[in-house]
Amino acid sequence: MSEPSPSPETQPEIPESPVSVEAPEAAPEAALSPLEAALADAAQWKDLAYRNAAELDNFRKRTTREAQETRSYANADLLRSLFPILDNFEMGLEAARAESEKSMIFMGMNMVHRQITDFLREQGVQEIEALGKPFDPNLHDAVSQEISTEAAEGTVLRVTRRGYKLKDRMLRAASVIVAGAPAPAETAPAA
Q1: Does the keyword Chaperone apply (predicted)?
Q2: What is the rounded distance in angstroms from the CA atom of residue 21 to the CA atom of residue 13?
Q3: DSSP 138
Q4: What are the distances in angstroms from CA 91 to CA 64, 95, 114?
Q5: Range of the structural domain that residue 55 is part of
Q6: Is residue 190 part of a domain?
Q7: 32: CB partners within 8 A, 6+ apart
């Protein structure tokens, strides 16, 4: 036996929610005529289309800029790996120079050195100027300090390892020896 369904009079009453379910924008649109509502809707979509077009344009520009930057600095790791080889080659060149600047070995090594430096220049690599310049921790790596009366305190006295930049980026800081101030002279007490 099936139970009879409760009559509408006997069903419990569900209280209405105090929170309105209507969207906040629905009330003003209801007061607008259909033409005004369609124009407002079209203006909203037009604004959204302009914003999306601008966002897409910015994305394209950013992607192009990042791709160009990647191409510009793609060789940075390879160039960093080349610097220790160049340092050793220059030590060999100095040893050959010490023996005789007229020897064929020195002349051949000097030509190769010139080719390497030309190649680096073509790639956008610049040597960091350090000798005689004020010490700059952004460009130089101080390995020691020497007391000097000829140079001002904080001036680079010698370069122990050359530093290089690729365009505007640091590839390797220059290792330098910096001038220190001499100790103040002690005055003899007056007798």
Answers
A1: yes
A2: 19
A3: T
A4: 42, 6, 14
A5: 28-72
A6: no
A7: 40
